[in-house]
Amino acid sequence: MPAATQAMTDSVVLITGAGQGIGAAISRRFADLGAKLALVDVNPEHLQQLTSSLSGAEILTLSADVSNKEQVGLLVAQVIEKFGRIDVLVNNAGIIRDNLISNISEQDWDQVLDVNLKGAFLCCQAVFPTLKSQRSGKIVNIVSRAWLGSIGQANYTSSKGGLVSLTRSLALEFARFQINVNAVAPGAIDSPMTQGLTDQARERLIRMQPTGKMGKVEDIAAAVAFLASDEAEFITGQVLHVDGGKSCGLLSL
Ligand code: NAP
After folding, report:
1. What architecture is domain 3-188+216-243?
2. pTM to 2 decimals?
3. Does ligand 1 have an atom closer than 6 angstroms to the CB of 191?
4. Is 11 a catalytic site residue?
5. How buried is 247 (Cβ within 10 angstroms: 0-12 exposed, 13-18 middle, 19+ buried)?
6. Which of 90, 153, 163, 216 is least buried, going by the fewest C-beta atoms within 10 A?
7. Buried/exposed 49-80: b ≥16 CB within 10 Å, e otherwise
8. With a 6 A CB cut-off, is 244 part of the ligand 1 pocket?
9. 114: β partners
10. CB of 44 closer than 6 A to ligand 1?
């Protein structure tokens, strides 16, 4: 049996932005592995729809905004109260507010940085005492291939580049406590986020992919499951690009 499909029956996995898209696929993956799930989303309706399809798994759903320190503290306390531990944190919640630099409003800059970067910081900080006392834990941050640079996404790429730096710094800071911190960098993935693009933007995005197609949400879930598994024990501070080769360079046809 491949490592990433080994059972995680006693593991408690906390996933943010779990309600749809990549977060929902990660939730399904860990549910299939038998993990206990703490699913966080700002949108309770998304969570309701997801959990009705996850039969059998022990689940705690939490409606919270990851950019709000008080709500993050509360949600982590609720996870500890229900399950008594946290083994895996997946910082997946993320938003886009794309525009060229001249047109990015201060609000759109702040919102993207708040959710994508500060949200992950707050969650890492809130779970750290628990992981430290356990002397074990895995944190997987969902960044983006776009952290390397992307026109019209200065706010988003800055947030994801910052999250890569956070990943690397916490990997060093947490290593002595046997806590691994890694990142998965998706390329273009078919999810509600990209389904929200105009047809023209979606077609352009697909044309830019070496594979000529988008990835699936399950491609990201598989990489997260691997980095959260025992097989990834000696991997920390790394960025795993799951992007059909897009991060290798520009296409020239
Ligand atoms: P998605 O379909 O928009 O799903 C994101 C989920 O997070 C939604 O349920 C959303 O709720 C929730 N959320 C948003 N803000 C939140 C907050 N402040 N607190 C808690 N939950 C919040 O996005 P996705 O495509 O699955 O993307 C998931 C992650 O992968 C993001 O970090 C994204 O940047 C990254 N990523 C995606 C792609 C891609 O091509 N899809 C590529 C690279 C990286 P609402 O819908 O109500 O806002």
Report:
1. 3-Layer(aba) Sandwich (3.40)
2. 0.97
3. yes
4. no
5. middle
6. 216
7. ebbeebeebebbbbbbbbbbeebbeebbeebb
8. no
9. none
10. no
